[in-house]
Amino acid sequence: MSSPSWFEASARQRVKEMLDQDSFVEFIGPEQRETSPHLSLFDLPEQFDDGMIVGRGLLDGKPVFIAAQEGRFMGGAFGEVHGAKLTGLLRAARDVGSIPVVILFDTGGVRLQEANAGELAIAEIMRAVVEARLAGVPVVGLVGGRAGCYGGGGLTAGSCSALAVSEQGRISVSGPEVIETNRGVEEFDSKDRALVWRTMGGKQRYLIGGADVFADDTVASFRDAARYVIEHAAALDLDTLQAEQVRLEQRIERFGACADAIDIWRSMGAADPQSLPGMAFEDFVALADGLKETRHVAR
Amino acid sequence: MEKLTYRHVAALRAKGTRDQAIVGVVASGNLEVLVERGLPDGECEVEIRTPVEGFGDVWSAVVVDFVGRSSPGGLKLSINDGGARPDMVALRLAQAVRAIEGERS
Predict the structure, then answer these.
(1) Which of A67, A240, A250, B45: CA 20 to 30 A from B80?
(2) What per-residue confidence (pLDDT) applies to A297?
(3) Which pLDDT score, from 0 to 100, does residue A296 have?
């Protein structure tokens, strides 16, 4: 049987299928009904796990902590409980000190109905990511769900040791509609799907060093990617941060004048940059490996 | 938000040994069903929380149909509804029983 699509799978399916069989143990499962204290004020339905699944399991026989957002419940958005579950998991990983954390992002950002609690949750999560990494724990992110990885999710992803993304994945802070609302349709047309994907999508993020591994849209491919990024996660120290600063300075120097992702790909040396968005997985990986010198991810 | 609770007599105890299972997601036109054991073998309870008020008769009919078709004895089913249609509700209820009985959902 072929591996299921990551994009189509639910958060629970992703967790279950990517870990070793029957190895997942959930913390604060749905039966504990630890739901949002805010949504009922707006007469909105709750979800028993508040859209965040956390627990532990085995990946190729090795223990991992895992967190997964359900992108179909309120767009995978961060609320108070949703965020606290991830913060707790990261703090546990920091205290244990030896078990990596895998975060399956699928989020539009902070849940507007619990805005302050959600924003605070993002701050706590980013601090917890940094503390875990300083304790020597790799914290890696996987992005390939329908909600993408936006807002505080994008910030948290940027704090991770390493990221894997698929073509369907999108990573950014302000989403397409936020940019259009604030800056006008001339700045960014959120209905132009091709523009959205070539600006924020997985292929572009991988090519410009925003993600470390490009995964195919299958659970099996993300499983392989997770193993790889855990093994190759950069330590969080001064050398890493200085190298990342240099990389970003070089990137803005090299591509800062480009008006569109197509221009970036052309100046990277892609012979036919218009063809990149339509390229199949294997062809794209082969092409990207040829342009690899532009893609040193330091973090 | 409307809360509805239905209790029924079930003919048979649900098979399997799992304590709980969950299926579905709270999204537009969808719902989640959390199913747990803990009731006497011949009883079944379905508790619904839905933002779409005034459809108690439809919920009641779907639950009666579900209890007749499945064998949910000993099960408590808790639903968070996202505005699902009756056919989706029936599907998720059947999936929930299969999931707790140990089959793939």
Answers:
(1) A67
(2) 61
(3) 54
Task: Supply A218's token pair.
Answer: 């299958």
Residue contact B49–A12, C-beta within 8 A: no
**pLDDT value, residue A234:** 86
Whether A286 and chain B come into contact, CB under 8 Å, resolves to: no
CA gap A165, A206 in Å, rounded: 7
What DSSP string runs through A182-211? HH-TTT--TT-HHHHHHHHBHHHHHHTTS-
**pLDDT lower than 70: segments of chain A:** 1, 292-299
- At A299 the pLDDT is 63
Topology at the third CATH level for domain A11-171+210-235: 2-enoyl-CoA Hydratase; Chain A, domain 1 (3.90.226)
User: pLDDT band at B102, cuts 50/70/90?
Assistant: confident
Which H/E stretch holds residue A282?
helix A281-290
Q: Mean pLDDT over all residues of chain B?
A: 95
Residue of B nearest to A76 (CA): B27
pLDDT at A2: 84
Q: What is the pLDDT of residue A289?
A: 87
Q: Cβ contact (<8 Å) for B20 and A31? A: yes
CB atoms within 10 A of CB A62: 12
CB–CB contact A72 B34 (8 Å)? no
Phi, psi angle pair for B6, to nearest 5°: -125, 130
Q: Compute φ and ψ for A130, nearest 5 degrees.
A: -65, -40
Q: Please tell me the predicted confidence (pLDDT) of residue B105.
A: 44
Cβ-based contacts of B19 with chain A (< 8 Å): 31
Domain coordinates in residue numbering, chain A: 11-171+210-235
The residue type at A90:
L
- The pLDDT of residue A195: 97
A73 touches B at CB < 8 Å: yes
* CA-CA-CA-CA dihedral for B19, A17, A90, A32, to nearest 10: -20
Helix, strand, or coil (residue B88): helix
Counting one residue from chain A and one from chain B, the pairs whose CB atoms sit within 8 A come to 43
The predicted structure's pLDDT at residue A224 = 98
Contacts of B27 in chain A (CB under 8 A): 72-73
Q: Which of A47, A49, A111 should be substituted to probe chain B, the one whose Cβ sees the most B Cβ atoms within 10 Å?
A: A47
CB contact under 8 A, B26 and A73: yes
